[in-house]
Amino acid sequence: MIVKELGVKNIIVKSASSWHSKIAAKIGANTIDYPEFEMAKKLVDGIRSPNILEQIELSKEYNLIEVVAPEEIWGKTIKNSGFRNNYGVNIIAIRKQIPFINDDGQSDMKEEINMVPGPENEIDQNDILVVVGSKESLVKLKGDK
Fold first, then answer.
1. Minimal CA–CA distance to 88: which of 45, 56, 123, 134?
2. What percentage of the chain has pLDDT greater than the value 70?
3. What pTM was estimated for this model as a whole?
4. CA angle 25, 28, 31 (to 5 degrees)
5. Could you tell me which residues come within 8 angstroms of residue 29 by beta carbon, excluding any fewer than 6 positions away?
């Protein structure tokens, strides 16, 4: 309430409960954040869908997720994988772990990111796919029931 009286235009409040959020809304909070709830949700999602590494809500209908490439598409090109037809999502980037020999002569891994993969790009074991799609289509990809 004090920052509102001081003329702050954008007020963000951390809320621990629905009661707190009602109070924050009444005194003029522009954004109400629920970090404990969001972390709990992320934990549950990670347990339910361990192949999903990250998820970002783009809108009420669409999400962007990072998913471990499913075994059934290893060694296939994006075009031949049937990924879009089977899951209804678009692959917008591929993160690959590339083995290399470091300056000490030891085997190591480095990450390469293809930010605009084409239909002929091959999907390998351990690739991380960055995909975008409707929440409805992502349910099938995530394996949620």
1. 134
2. 88
3. 0.65
4. 65
5. 11, 12, 13
